[in-house]
Write a structure and sequence with these properties.
heterodimer; A: seven-stranded mixed β-sheet; 0% helix; 52% strand; B: mainly beta; Immunoglobulin-like; four-stranded antiparallel β-sheet; 50% strand; globular
């Protein structure tokens, strides 16, 4: 089975712009979660989608949003980019409904640099 | 709210020596515990997980971890490290929110350096 794929792998944007990141989960997985990784804050949970619905959300401002399509692929959008949004954005998929015990499998990440 | 502490930011171990990475968690109920490894520029790879049952869990690449409820710890061990084990190691805790993946809480990570 192919793993979690994320596109693009690298991205450079300027302040004020918006960006969309894409994540394709492992085939058959219905849950997709997004995380932000920075040197200062470490790994932080952004949100989780299941069956095209956002089920859980971390503590991030409304500039961060996402969606999930019927094929379980997910996109994450960040509007009005700030310098502090520079980070590695990781997507993780898990098989589906259920508690966190369903192990999350991570993609390689998209590295976003905001200038 | 749950939290995870990895007390060691950096650890240096000689190749062939044993390894123990520490992880302490704070959570009111029985947690779900994970260890992930991240190589430079890569995503996270799951090493092992604990949900319930036997408190000593085996993972990939020769790693094991022991859940100790009394100490709120989930330390990762390996009897003999290889140069390829050099990476960043993350301990994470999850919880049963009843409504799906509620997001893992990660420690800050331990950077493992292997000396030849």
């Amino acid at each position: 089975k192919a793993g979690v794929t994320q596109t693009p792998r690298y991205l450079i944007k300027t302040r004020g712009q918006q960006v969309t990141l894409s994540c394709s989960p492992i085939s058959g997985h219905r849950s997709v979660s997004w995380y932000q990784q920075t040197p200062g804050q470490g790994l932080q949970f952004l949100f989780e989608y299941f069956s095209e619905t956002q089920r859980n959300k971390g503590n991030f401002p409304g500039r961060f949003s996402g969606r999930q399509f019927s094929n379980s692929r997910s996109e994450m959008n960040v509007s009005t980019l700030e310098l502090g949004d520079s980070a590695l954005y990781l997507c993780a998929s898990s098989p589906g409904q259920g508690p966190t015990q369903e192990t999350q499998y991570f993609g390689p990440g998209t590295r976003l640099l905001v200038l | 709210a749950q939290s995870v502490t990895q007390p060691d930011i950096h650890i240096t171990v000689s190749e062939g020596a044993s390894l123990e990475l520490r992880c302490n968690y704070s959570y009111g109920a029985t947690p779900y515990l994970f260890w992930y490894v991240q190589s430079p520029g890569q995503g996270l790879q799951l090493l092992l997980k604990y949900f319930s049952g036997d408190t000593l869990v085996q993972g990939i690449k020769g790693f094991e971890a022991e859940f100790k409820r009394s100490q709120s710890s989930f330390n990762l061990r390996k009897p003999s490290v290889h140069w390829s084990d050099a990476a960043e190691y993350f301990c994470a805790v999850g919880r049963d929110s009843g409504g799906g993946a509620d997001g893992l809480t990660f420690g800050k990570g331990t950077h493992l350096i292997i000396q030849p």
